[in-house]
Amino acid sequence: MSTSSSTVAVVGAGIAGLSAAIRLRIAGKEVIVFEQNSYTGGKVTAFEKEGFRFDMGPSLFTLPHLVDELFELAGKNPREYFNYHTHDEVCRYFWEDGTKLTLFPSIEKNVAAVSSVFGPSEGGKLFDYFEMARRKYDLTAPFFLEKSLHSARTFLTPKVLKVLAEIPKLGLFSTLNEENEKVFNAPKLVQLFNRYATYNGSSPYQTPGIMQMITHLEHSLGTHFPVGGMHEISQSLTRLAVELGVRFELDTRVEEFIIENHEITGLVAGEKIWTIDQLVCNSDVKYAYKHLMPKQVKRPKKTLAQEPSSSALIFYWGLSEQFPEMDLHNIIFSEDYREEFENIRTNGPFWEDPTVYIHISNRLEPGDAPENKDCWFVMVNTPYDQGQDWEAIVPLVREKVLERISKALGTPVEPLIEVEEVLRPQDIEKRTSSVGGALYGTSSNERMAAFLRHSNKSNSIKGLYFCGGSAHPGGGVPLCLLSGKIAAQWLVNDE
Question: Cβ distance 302 to 289 under 8 Å?
Answer without folding.
Answer: no
